[in-house]
Amino acid sequence: GEGEVRITAADKSAQEDARTLRWTGNGTSWAGLVGDSSIDLQREANGQLSLALDYRLDAPLNATVSLRIGCGAGCGGSVPIGPPLTSSAAGQWAHLKIPLACFAKSGADLSRVTIPFAIDSADHTTVSVANIRLESGTDGVMSCR
Fold it and tell me: Of the candidates 9, 44, 46, 54, which lies 20 to 30 Å from 135 by C-alpha distance?
């Protein structure tokens, strides 16, 4: 909804190369990247690519936070990222890497991705993100059930 996530520029390795997402606590809402048209990420998922990003938890976490890939109305897959967020030191940048296959397992149709990256949360959550990209390799990959 409107006004539930505030997005401001932040600095990681260069000026304004990161974004700080601040949830106001007025219900669940999301922030992310929305494409003009759908993209097909099936080959990337089969090739074991992961959705990767750098993140920094800027306030103690007291809500569920998920990464989501969307594929149109009522279509999407999300992976809870609370455990890695809270295991890293607050205020320190860390790296998160989730296999695209995890999003498919949880319901995303990777042949028609309209939102390649979104973060869902409720309550008061403040997290900064940078360098959102697809990454190969299995080192440091988060497992999904």
Answer: 9
Place of tokens 């998160």: 96
Determine contact, residues 128/16, Cβ cutoff 8 Å. Answer: no
Closest alpha carbon to 95 in 12, 10, 7: 12
Computed on alpha carbons and rounded to an integer, the radius of gyration of the chain in Å comes to: 14
**How crowded is residue 104: how many other Cβ atoms within 10 Å of its Cβ?**
20
- Alpha helices, DSSP H, located in 33-95: 42-46, 82-87
Query: Which residue in 141, 72, 67, 137 sits closest to 110, CA to CA?
Result: 72
- Cβ-contact 96, 144 below 8 angstroms: no
Burial of 81 (0-12, 13-18, 19+ CB in 10 A): buried
Tokens of 96: 């998160």
| Distance separating alpha carbons of residues 99 and 49, to the nearest angstrom | 6
* Residue 31 DSSP symbol: E
* Helix and strand numbers, DSSP H then E, in the chain: 3, 9
Distances (CA, A) of 14 to 116, 124, 135: 24, 27, 21
The two tokens of residue 16 are 């304004």
